[in-house]
From TrEMBL:
CDD domains: CysRS_core
Motif ('HIGH' region): 31-41
Cofactor note: Binds 1 zinc ion per subunit.
Protein known as: Cysteine--tRNA ligase
Positions that bind Zn(2+): C29, C209, H234, E238
Keyword field: Aminoacyl-tRNA synthetase, ATP-binding, Cytoplasm, Ligase, Metal-binding, Nucleotide-binding, Protein biosynthesis, Zinc
Compartment(s) of residence: Cytoplasm
Cofactors: Zn(2+)
Motif ('KMSKS' region): 266-270
């Protein structure tokens, strides 16, 4: 089986061939940390984390770098509004970002470099571009000579002439050409700043990623990824900077995820429909949010609504219920579950085929539901051998884990003896047809945050989310 990925650069699916056998060097553009992330920011975090997990499942060692832009115009504006320093705001929202994506079960990056911690490399990179004639200083600013890079526009598939029509020179800019973009910005009074050969200032947005890729992954990497909104100008400018300096491809594969819409409308502050992950995961199980994001192949647009997310709650709940019922049934067969049913290999093959097709998580999730359906049939029969149930449990656990979906209930690993005793009292009351007493016990448990579920395999209980 061969993994194929859709390369934005060539606009086609290509067989993935790593630069170094068994290793993947991957860079994913991270957030500008001036506020909590919204659901649109969460999508690349989830989908490219899933791609990383799949590479690891296939035996690759993945060096996964994702940056934090911790100084730019929006951070400076937030600093002035809130009367806090730029580093204070950045630290606050880096912490919030890590908490939010951690709740979505996004693995920690190999490293999360910050722009402010990469300043020597950024300044050195700009200096080399000036030395080669691809950049020039003008009154404390430094600009990139866009027309000098002959392949400019190759990622977004636009010509320089097409781009020229929308380009302008703003007041205060000293560009040679409207198409030129800033590598270094001279500091305005009161702004955060660093010393440089061109005067005190700070880097432009695009240059930080070129410098970080070079520092942590090398001149050419396997995969550069991010949202489709980054294709132009951000990734286009990264290519221009890095390839002008290194005379080689910046990345072999460029991967971009599609937009998220809210109730079939573009997410926008002006409309007021921006949904913050910080708020969303207070209302919904974070793993349901992850599951929802993965139900659509990453390149396609995805529509978000409460109705669709509630559907995801039910769908993900069905997977968890089957997994729980397998666990519950297998408790009676400790030590009798040796062996692995050969039927499970067909599920694994179908799952790999789906993920090999440009990380098609939608089709991969369909395989999980087929496993759950067949496992449910097996659970209904008292004659099903424990080894088969164990095999269903193992394959469901293995493949859901590749998608970062935890099916096991984390709250059930530590049982409360008092809860168990109350459940037994309730069952005794029901057997004796003392239904009023049974209802009182259930209400007591509910007030204590214990949720009961009556299943064919017995009473299931769990603690409600805090």
């Amino acid at each position: 089986m061969t993994l194929k990925v859709y390369n934005t650069l060539t606009r086609k699916k290509e067989v993935f061939v790593p630069i170094e056998k068994g290793k993947v060097r991957m860079y994913v553009c991270g957030p500008t940390v001036y506020n909590y992330i919204h659901i649109g920011n969460a999508r690349p975090a989830v989908v490219f984390d899933t791609a990383r997990r799949y590479f690891e499942f296939r035996g690759y060692n993945v060096n996964y770098v994702s940056n934090f832009t911790d100084v730019d115009d929006r951070l400076i504006h937030a600093s002035q509004e809130r009367h806090q320093s730029v580093p204070e705001i950045a630290n606050q929202f880096i912490k919030a970002f890590l908490a939010d994506v951690g709740a979505l079960n996004v693995k920690k990056a190999t490293i999360n470099p910050r722009a402010t911690e990469t300043m020597p490399e950024i300044i050195a990179f700009i200096g080399k571009l000036i030395d080669t004639g691809f950049a020039y200083a003008a009154d404390g600013d430094v600009y990139y000579r866009t027309r000098k890079f002959k392949d400019y526009g190759k990622l977004s598939h636009q010509s320089v002439d097409d781009l020229k029509s929308g380009a302008r020179i703003e007041i205060g800019e000293n560009k040679e050409d409207p198409l030129d973009f800033a590598l270094w910005k001279a500091a305005k009074p009161g702004e955060i700043k660093w010393a440089s050969p061109w005067g005190e200032g700070r880097p432009g947005w695009h240059i930080e990623c070129s410098a970080m890729v070079e520092k942590y992954l090398g001149e050419t990497i396997d995969i550069h990824a991010g949202g489709t909104d980054l294709v132009f100008p951000h990734h286009e400018n990264e290519i221009a900077q890095s390839e002008a300096l290194h005379h080689c491809a910046m990345a072999h594969y460029w991967l971009h995820n599609g937009h998220i819409q809210i109730n079939n409308e573009k997410m926008s502050k002006s409309i007021g429909n921006v949904i913050l992950v910080h708020d969303l995961i207070k209302k919904y199980d974070p793993l349901v949010v992850r599951f929802f994001i993965l139900t659509v192949q990453y390149r396609h647009p995805i529509n978000f609504s409460d109705e669709l997310l509630n559907d995801a709650v039910q769908a993900f709940g069905r997977l968890k219920t089957v997994f729980y019922n397998l666990d519950h049934r297998l408790k009676d067969f400790a030590g009798q579950t040796d062996g692995f049913d050969e039927k499970m290999e067909s599920y694994r093959v179908r799952f790999i085929e789906a993920m090999d097709d440009d990380f098609n998580t939608a089709n991969a999730i369909s395989v999980l539901f087929d496993i759950a359906k067949d496992a449910n049939i097996a659970l209904q029969s008292a004659d099903t051998k424990p080894a088969l149930l164990f095999s269903y449990r193992q394959i469901l656990f293995e493949l859901s884990d590749v998608l970062g979906l935890k099916l096991e209930d984390q709250t059930e690993s530590i049982l409360d003896s008092d809860v168990e005793a109350m459940i037994e009292k309730r069952e005794a009351a029901r057997r004796d047809k003392q239904f009023a007493l049974a209802d009182v016990i259930r209400d007591q448990l509910k007030k204590a945050g214990i949720v009961l579920e009556d299943t064919p395999q017995g009473v299931r209980w769990k603690r409600g989310r805090e």
